[in-house]
Specification:
CATH class: Mainly Beta
Distance between the termini: 21 Å
Strand order of the largest sheet: 1-2-3-5-4
Shape: globular
Keywords: Signal
Number of helices: 2
């Protein structure tokens, strides 16, 4: 049943083909770490969803997804925890939400590249890209 749920979630993802040689903007998928981005491979430990101003209901407010991984990410921008954030105005938001939830349910490792910035949340790395093998 769990495999079926994962397969159904994967059907919701946009259809793309991944080439071993594909590198967005020249980024190497494995072992990449520069001042702009850092790579991390692991399992999704926790996922959180909230709006920009979650204390007041506003259906037009920007929403965020923040996720934690195991092994833990490095501490983000001087905060106290390592996590990655993506906002609903990002073109890949819905795909990333589907992929992260699928990885969480299946407990399969994923590979991410997070930017070494915390523009969305002062204590969360900005999302770069995600790969599921």
């Amino acid at each position: 049943m769990k495999i079926l749920k994962v397969m159904l979630l994967l059907l919701l993802l946009p259809s793309t083909s991944w080439s071993e040689n594909y590198t967005p903007d020249g980024v190497t998928p494995e072992g990449f770490s520069t001042k702009k981005a850092t790579s991390h491979t692991g399992k999704i430990a926790q996922v959180m969803f909230f709006s920009n101003n979650w204390t007041n209901y506003n259906p037009n407010d920007k929403s965020f997804m923040v996720f934690y991984m195991t092994p833990s990410l490095s501490t983000a921008c001087g905060g106290s925890e390592g996590r990655v954030a993506i906002a609903s105005d990002h073109r890949l938001y819905e795909s990333v939400v589907s992929a992260v939830l699928s990885a969480k349910m299946s407990q399969q490792p994923i590979h991410i590249e997070h930017l070494n910035t915390c523009a969305l949340r002062y204590n969360a790395w900005d999302f770069g890209y995600l790969r599921m093998d």
